Amino acid sequence: MLIEIDRIAKSFGTTTALDPVSVTIPSGALVALLGPSGSGKTTLLRILGGLEYPTGGRVLFDGQDAGKLSVQERRAGFVFQSYALFRHMTVHENIAYGLRARPRRTRPTRAEIDRRVTGLLDLIQLPEIGARYPGQLSGGQRQRVALARALAIEPRMLLLDEPFGALDARVRKELRQGLREIHDRTGLTTVFVTHDQEEAMELADLVVVMSMGRIEQVGRPQDIRQRPASEFVREFTAA
Amino acid sequence: MRALVAKSPMPGFGLGMGITITMLSLVVLLPIGALVLHGLNFGLANNWQVVGTERVMASLFLSFRLALLAALFNLVFGVILAWVLARYEFPGRRVVDAIVDLPFALPTAVAGIALTALYAPNGLFGAFVRDWLAPLGNFLLSPLGVEFSGRIAYTQWGILIALVFVGLPFVVRTVQPVIAEIEREVEEASATLGASRAHTLRRVILPMLMPAALTGFALSLARAVGEYGSVIFIAGNIPMRTEIAPLLIVIRLEEFNYDAASAIGIAMLLVSFALLLVINLIQIWSRRRVGDV
Amino acid sequence: MSDIALATPLEKEAPVTRRQPVTQESRATRVTLITLCLAVLVLLVLAPLGIIFVEATRRGAASALQSLTRPEAVSAIRLTLTVAAITVPLNAGFGIAAAWAITKFDFRGKAVLITLIDLPFSISPVVVGLSLVLLFGANTALGGWLVSMGYPIVFALPAIVLASVFVTFPFVARELIPVMVEQGRAEEEAALTLGASGWRCFLTVTLPNIKWALLYGVLLCNARAMGEFGAVAVVSGKIRGQTATMPIAIEMLYNEYLSVAAFSLAGVLALLALVTLALKSALEWRHADQLAATRRH
Predict the structure, then answer these.
(1) Neighbours of chain A (3+ CB pairs under 8 A)
(2) pLDDT tens digit sequence for A105-130
(3) CATH architecture group of domain B51-105+168-229+239-287
(4) Residue A173: its pLDDT value, please?
(5) Which CATH architecture has domain C60-295?
(6) Do B188 and C23 touch (CB under 8 A)?
(7) Interface ipTM
(8) Residue B34 vs residues B270, C133, C153: alpha-carbon distances, Å
(9) pTM assigned to the model
(10) Of A65, B27, B250, C132, which has the highest C-beta tally within 10 A?
């Protein structure tokens, strides 16, 4: 799905989180929103997901104004920084949640739900953990379950907030590869937020560098490395 | 085998433990022991004969049934009130938050006479119910053959109101901190997965609050089963109808019938222990199930 | 810069609607629930509180105050203050000792000990009174001997104090234990390595850390001790002017249809409850950090 961000602005009271920013995310791309904390990258991601309302501008999904779509209607697969798994539900129940929450007309049958959950557990390469509770999983496993839960609703795009932030270096490398593979297999337009320039450069097709509520530069990783548009980008992306 | 007391460089174990055990024994265990001993001397069969009489059974059943109803009301209302206090902004929220604890702070006898004054047939609310609410209700429900006397105080309704009053803060105070700890992201995750707000509240929030709410429910139930001060003024104390078990103990004591009093007392003690067990089981269960994420 | 951008014609194409956050219920739901809660609290809590003062001043404020100077009222107030003055320090001392032993040391049976300390919360006050009568009553071995020695327990001050200590037993310990668990042992260990004696360590390190929680527990303990009815009613014997505490005196006056006198005395206890709540709330707001742990059961 093509995502067009058209002069989106956001302020909380008197503080400006996003100066009007515009960027187009091509369909099927894997895009990193890269910037230090307070640069507005998470706010932008939350606006895409419908969790935050912009104070100005609009977002277009495949040319249609998303402003009228509620969070529930957007079908944005959102992976939270803390994963936000439902701790009183098993992994299976977590992944099935979005399907079971549908109104009866569009809800798949129980067998169909089970089939899909099993398929997703295979996809994240954790076929055996359906009966466990989130509290019994490692950090890396939780992250993958959160990803599977987001994929279960057949999302139109995948939005990830610092998806590897809470993991140690070894697991992080492993899961980066996993996200790349899942993106390539599903072909979903994927946007992830990170403050780690190495992660952005290694994983993304397109990197959006942000600072203080503005977009500093949009480009392919090697373009940003070779031709930084500003002093900020040069310093921030210096390895 | 683990040592009875782990070695520690910290001083004062003997003194602290000494005071604790001494006070606990003298103040709590010795009297309870005297009650149990009295019951044992009296004999199981005799105890059962006292408890098995119609009047005692009626009073125990009344205490337990109304306590259960009051605790159920407090469970539902307590969760709502805790949610409102934790999540909604409205003028006077802090004052309301403080007022919730009034049933803990107000002596039960004071609450008893105040509730009676309000809900007696000539009281402010009692008169309103008798003159307006009951006739209206009876008019609307007359096809069903239901008839309400319009009396609150001196009926089981009065006891129920007193028990709701004394148990009101328990659920609120156990649930409130749990609500404060819920991450917003969990609710947002539910919304991004397509769940309506109502679905989120029912399937995500409520199950998270349930262990704490059940603990509060059990505490409120335990309190209501044994409640005396706030009830006797409003109850009317008619044997078989509005006579609660603790009152029957007092009556037997005033007749110097210590055997019968202790038999009823032991029955109530067993109910308390059973409830205490339930509270502990709930806590173990919820800790095991939810764990630490 | 952002002001100019916000003023572009785009605003007219896509009007920004003020929508509620996704983690909040609709306005109608919120207003309904708030109204429901306020209504129940008014009917069940505020109205009874108000009626106490209405009934007390039914024949004028002067009459209410006058009734408080009756000898039986004065003696009831004096007895209640005496009982609280003995009960509260006893339970404060016990609470500190128990919390110290439980939080600073590891030993077997800790869970059982904590359950036993909590036991009085779930026992009916009347059963407490009954137990004391069965232990110390004049017709029991122990009670008979004590009476013959000239120390009657039941129907006298000692039993009233024992009953009050029993029903308020867990209050201070319950507030201190979670706070002390949260604070850990590191500060005390540091003090000990610096050469402080045990008492010095307690007075200069532990006590300042727990003082607000201690005060909190003492407040609750005091409110309950002054207001205890069921347990005291059984053991006091209700001797007018001698063993009638304020709650007992309220019952006696009420049963004698001396409504103004009963409600005036009740008003004094209600004011005490309000002061307790005010102090408690002030503590919660000011020292939330030090009390945070205590609000979990």
Answers:
(1) B, C
(2) 999 999 999 999 999 999 999 999 99
(3) Orthogonal Bundle (1.10)
(4) 87
(5) Orthogonal Bundle (1.10)
(6) yes
(7) 0.91
(8) 15, 9, 15
(9) 0.90
(10) C132
